[in-house]
Design goal:
GO biological process, one term: cytoskeleton organization
Oligomer: single chain
Family: Belongs to the STRIP family.
Number of helices: 34
Strand content: under 5%
Distance between the termini: 84 Å
Protein name: Striatin interacting protein 2
InterPro entries: Far11/STRP, Far11/STRP_C, Far11/STRP_N
Radius of gyration: 30 Å
């Protein structure tokens, strides 16, 4: 802290040189010194703010001196260390000692990625330039011809295939998640990219920002049980003031519940928040009212624009389905536009939601033409220019082994799920949390139990966020990239896995307290360590909810919604696995975004659940009407969808698979149409071509000649006669 910047650079350079020594112990000691710098030289700091300041300062200094590239080389060496992998495979039990160097390297890299990714107000122009350079470096194919993320995916697949059981999966998954979050961007960057791409394609602006709309929603009360209704009736008989156990369908939630035709002043007087009921199927016990997860404060209202407006009672602007758009478009062309010769661009008289869908139809027609251009008669007519976006580069790097990556991530998710039972043949995800010596006291056992549960929660959080980011960015980059990942998730049993995850006491999982505040960094290195007792560990922290677990639940519900939306075969999987009661139990979590995704999943399968289910769940049906987006001609509340015939399910998946394979072949297969490429018939030209041979071939050329040429009898006369 007392050195000048130049002296700090000299010190870091000495550490960088020492990283190249052959002695493993010395190299580990130097790596620990770099980790201490990245953690903010906490031994010289007095407050947590000082630790965070010096950590940020040192991380940018380390990146400027090229530490990340050196760490990447060491990480590649550890990944390819077959001796360490084979010894770990032979061990009966793997502990923290087997992955010491890997954990140190991954910790430094994680601190660098996360610190540089987060932008602060006081960042200098040099730091902003370093952030953009680091972002480009991570997303570009600079590391062995591929981005940094596929290298981490390779570590995941090696671990799940039991070839490297000592890999610290929690740190690998966290680094992988933050790397993709940094290179591709989060939800806010995704929204900006959507707006920018719509402007480039001359599409109308989005009617609303989905993130802002959800943030303004209020959570509804969960369905009331029979005991809660009886208790409320008894309280009413005793004269106590309580809310009504059953409410009207038009007052299920206080968000935008008011009549848009009433006067605003009268509305403000009438809608007292104490008297408005917001339950779905009743109200919870009054003693439990303080466990409501409050959403963040709503953002300021945006100035009025010329975007699509919707009634104040609905949070979403309505949309139109693809099938309805086809009907309108065909009818419109046949009946009206025949007056104008070959004019199919005029959209006069059609509703505004259909305008955008017509443009989508034209994009689908263009994709169909490009796929048909694989014919040898159309070579060169369907070529497209592919923009080298970070998502495109990542997809290209993941494409050869995408199915293995998806299966490996779902295996880890299954092993970390709280409902999973320990099996002898399952993968061991606790290799980087179990100590060499098992605990011998009650306090040590409790501490280890909390660490294990926290370890699993972090793995679930990283995997859920990682999969959701991939789906969202691939969907924006190209729809078939999204469908390819989604189909691999479905084939790897992602739907029953997520339902199994939610088939638990979800309120207990959301309110779990698997953390020890006294051991949180940087609190534990600045303040004096209090004495830990069994009572303090059992009490946990003061937080009422575990935001980490809530984050994971929302991500998993969003993933399930994305892979089943408008796919009848996958929706029927939700029905077959009896997801409705599981999802209804998840409504007990009073958080608006989580309830929205649950209601979406209930909406898409409502038509298959029968009239009796809809009749006994009218409050849930009303909540769906109120909170989920409406679509024209979407009869989700009835059972008369002719497109939901069971014999079409397999054909639907096969047709989608065929389109995806055509897309991947057309865009990424460089050897396509090889049967129709011109053949060079000139002997001198063929023999004069330069052929790249491996280096070891020159040393064994004579042996190859003797084995393949001289020792093989060739009947030249027969060959000439055949000609």
């Amino acid at each position: 802290m007392e050195l000048s910047l130049e002296e700090q650079r000299v010190y870091v350079m000495r550490l960088l040189d020492a990283l190249e020594v052959t002695d493993r112990d010395k190299r580990l000691k130097v790596a620990r010194a770099i980790l201490y710098l990245a953690q903010g030289v906490f031994d010289e700091c007095d407050t947590e703010a000082d630790v965070l300041y010096w950590s940020r300062h040192n991380v940018f200094l380390l990146y400027d001196m090229g530490i990340f590239t050196a760490l990447l080389e060491l990480l590649s060496m550890e990944i390819d260390n077959n001796q360490a992998c084979s010894s770990a495979v032979r061990k009966p039990a793997i502990s923290l000692a087997d992955s010491t160097e890997l954990r140190v390297l991954l910790s430094i890299m994680y601190l660098m990625v996360e610190t540089i990714r987060v932008e602060t107000e006081g960042d200098s122009p040099e730091r902003k330039a370093a952030r953009e350079a680091f972002k480009t470096e991570l997303g570009s194919p600079l590391y062995n011809g591929e981005p940094f993320a596929p290298l981490l995916f390779t570590m995941v697949t090696k671990f799940c295939s039991m070839n490297a059981p000592h890999f610290p999966m929690k740190k690998v998954l966290l680094l992988l998640w933050k790397t993709i979050l940094f290179t591709l961007g989060g939800f806010e960057e995704l929204q900006e990219m959507k707006v920018r791409m719509r402007e480039q394609l001359n599409l109308s602006p989005l009617p609303e920002d989905s993130i802002k709309v959800v943030r303004q929603m209020r959570a509804a009360s969960p369905p009331a049980s029979a005991m809660e209704l009886i208790e409320q009736q008894q309280q009413q008989k005793r004269g106590r003031r309580s809310r009504r156990p059953l409410v009207k369908q038009d007052s299920l939630d206080t968000y935008n519940e008011r009549d848009p035709f009433k006067n605003d002043d009268v509305r403000d007087e009438e809608d007292d928040p104490e008297d408005v009921d917001s339950g779905i199927e009743g109200e919870v016990d009054p003693l439990d009212r303080d466990v409501i997860i409050q959403p963040p404060p709503p953002p300021p209202l945006r100035p009025p624009t010329e975007r699509v407006s919707f009634p104040r009672g609905l949070p979403w602007a309505p949309k139109v389905r693809y099938i309805l758009c086809c009907f309108w478009f065909t009818l419109y062309v046949l009946s009206f536009l025949m007056l104008f010769y070959s004019d199919i661009d005029t959209l006069v008289g059609l509703p505004r939601p259909i305008h955008e869908s017509v443009k989508t139809l034209k994009q689908v027609s263009m994709e169909t033409f490009l796929c048909q251009s694989e014919s040898p008669l159309l070579i060169g007519q369907g070529e497209e220019e592919v923009e080298e976006t970070p998502a495109e580069i990542l997809y290209l790097g993941m494409l050869p082994s995408l199915s293995q990556y998806v299966i490996a991530l779902l295996k880890l998710l299954l092993a970390a799920a709280p409902t999973s039972k320990a099996k002898t043949d399952s993968i061991n995800i606790l290799a980087d949390v179990l100590p060499e010596e098992m605990p011998i006291t009650v306090l040590q056992s409790m501490k280890l139990g909390i660490d294990v549960n926290r370890h699993k929660e972090i793995i679930v959080k990283a995997i859920s966020a990682l999969l959701l980011l991939l789906l969202k960015h691939f969907k924006l980059n190209h729809i078939y990239q999204f469908e390819y990942v989604a189909q691999h998730l479905v084939f790897a049993n992602c739907i029953p896995l997520i339902l199994k995850f939610f088939n638990q006491n979800i309120m207990s999982y959301i309110s779990a307290k698997n953390s020890i505040c006294a051991l949180d960094f940087p609190h534990c290195v600045v303040h004096e360590m209090p004495e830990l007792t069994a009572e303090s560990l059992e009490a946990g922290d003061s937080n009422q909810f575990c935001w980490r677990n809530l984050f994971s639940c929302i991500n998993l519900l969003s993933i399930l919604n994305k892979i089943t939306k408008w796919k009848h075969s996958r929706t029927m999987m939700l029905v077959v696995f009896k997801s409705a009661p599981i999802l209804k139990r998840a409504l007990k979590v009073k958080q608006a975004m989580m309830q929205l995704y649950v209601l979406k999943l209930l909406k898409i399968q409502t038509k298959y659940l029968g009239r009796q289910w809809r009749k006994s769940n009218m409050k849930t049906m009303s909540a769906i009407y109120q909170k989920v987006r409406h679509r024209l001609n979407d009869d989700w509340a009835y059972g008369n969808d002719i497109d939901a015939r069971p014999w079409d399910f397999q054909a639907e998946e096969c047709a989608l698979r065929e389109c995806i394979e055509k897309f991947n072949t057309r865009r990424y297969d460089k050897n396509q149409n090889s049967d129709f490429t011109p053949v060079d018939n000139c002997l001198q030209s063929v023999l004069g071509q330069r052929v790249d041979l491996p280096e070891d071939f020159h040393y064994s050329y004579e042996m190859w000649l003797e084995r393949e040429v001289f020792s093989q009898p060739i009947q030249w006369e027969g060959l000439l006669q055949a000609q």
